[in-house]
From TrEMBL, chain A:
GO BP field: vacuolar proton-transporting V-type ATPase complex assembly
InterPro entries (UniProt xref): Vma22/CCDC115
Organism: Hibiscus trionum
Organism superkingdom: Eukaryota
Gene Ontology MF term list: unfolded protein binding
Region: Disordered, residue numbers: 1-22
Protein name: Vacuolar ATPase assembly protein VMA22
Automatic annotation (TrEMBL), chain B:
UniProt similarity note: Belongs to the V-ATPase F subunit family.
GO cellular component entries: proton-transporting V-type ATPase, V1 domain
Domain of life: Eukaryota
GO molecular function terms noted in the UniProt entry: proton-transporting ATPase activity, rotational mechanism
Keywords from the named record: Hydrogen ion transport, Ion transport, Transport
Source species of the chain: Hibiscus trionum
Name of the protein this chain belongs to: V-type proton ATPase subunit F
Length: 210, 129
């Protein structure tokens, strides 16, 4: 009787373990499907944004003339990219877009970090704290305005390759392609997630069929 | 690839492009263009005169450069060097296939989706049950 009970318990434990494994496998598959769905949705969104950008470029070319908007005018002197990526190589690589970064921006960003660091210090008196927080808010606003100005300067510098006076459509194209860049970074991150989820599912199913 | 130094964690890296003129010009307007001291750019403009060899060389160069984190390649250009794109499997730089003005995106040709599509094949599903 005791032996039979023991056998029944072992069977139940085995079944529970199997159910847990199945649940983990289902979670992995769901994660993979979700990331693939996100990837396809983002690519579809990218297509729309790029279409708008190409349309704006075509309109700009129409109003400015093809001779003013062609690759012969591109700047081939040494210059760094104003927009770049920060890469965090963890379990899966993670990309962060840094738009319109210049030495001016970095100084302003460092100033912002200092201001946020100061926030962690305790306030001495309530009255003084109010004044302090007002000063900090105005500093943050000033820093934010300065960053915006710097970003506008970088944007104008990028447009100036095609002349001092450019069509508003060219500015619109610039914004469209900036949006496309943001979407592309999301796609890159979703791609990493998808590949990681795919590896997990593949491991479970006992290797890929390449 | 052996000997390739990985991009240092949390350092800035470039976006490279192998695409048609309008796509490259658009992204250059967005500030991704980089020209180094040797006048090497992070982009290749593909037109009717661009050879497959030039595209292959650009792809190999961009995927081995240590300062590039993402390579954007128009899907119709990727189709010209499909064997190279599909055989590439490093996490960085990430290869992203993008649509072009005259060639819309086709998920059937995307190298990442091709890699994972066998999961949905009937043989693969049957083998798991």
């Amino acid at each position: 009787m005791e032996v039979a009970d023991h056998k029944t318990q072992s069977l139940e434990n085995g079944q529970a373990a199997e159910e847990e494994v199945d649940e983990i496998e289902n979670d992995n598959v769901l994660q993979f499907m979700d990331s693939m769905d996100a990837y396809l949705t983002l690519v579809h969104s990218l297509s729309s944004t790029l279409r708008q950008g190409w349309l704006d470029l075509a309109s700009a070319r129409h109003s400015m003339g093809a001779y003013r908007l062609n690759t012969a005018l591109l700047d081939h002197t040494s210059h760094p990219a104003a927009t770049s990526l920060l890469v965090d190589e963890g379990k899966e690589p993670h990309f962060t877009l840094c738009k319109w970064r210049s030495s001016g921006n970095e100084k302003l960003l460092l100033g912002e970090e200092q201001s946020s660091h100061d926030k962690s210090h305790p306030q001495l008196r309530h009255r003084g704290a109010t004044l302090l927080s007002e000063e900090k808010t105005s500093f943050e606003n000033k820093a934010s305005c300065e960053i915006d100005d710097q970003v506008q300067k970088e944007r104008s510098k990028s447009l100036s390759v095609f002349g001092t006076l450019v069509s508003p459509k060219l500015r619109a194209a610039q914004l469209s392609f900036e949006t496309a860049l943001e979407t592309l970074v999301e796609i890159a991150n979703t791609r990493s997630e998808m590949l990681r989820a795919f590896d997990k599912v593949n491991q479970k199913s006992g290797g890929s069929k390449d | 690839m052996a000997g390739r130094v990985q991009i240092p964690t949390n350092n800035s890296a470039l976006i490279a492009m192998i695409a048609d003129e309008d796509t490259v010009v658009g992204f250059l307007l967005a500030g991704v263009g980089n020209v180094d001291l040797r006048r090497k750019t992070n982009y290749l403009i593909v037109d009717s005169k661009t050879t497959v060899k030039q595209i292959e060389e650009a792809f190999k160069e961009f995927t081995t450069r240590t300062d590039i984190a993402v390579v954007l390649i128009s899907q119709y250009v990727a189709n010209m060097v499909r064997f190279l794109v599909d055989s590439y499997n490093k996490p960085i730089p990430a290869i992203l296939e993008i649509p072009s003005k005259n060639h819309p995106y086709d998920p059937a040709h995307d190298s990442i989706l091709s890699r994972v599509k066998h999961l949905f094949s009937t043989e693969s599903v049957a083998s798991r049950h």
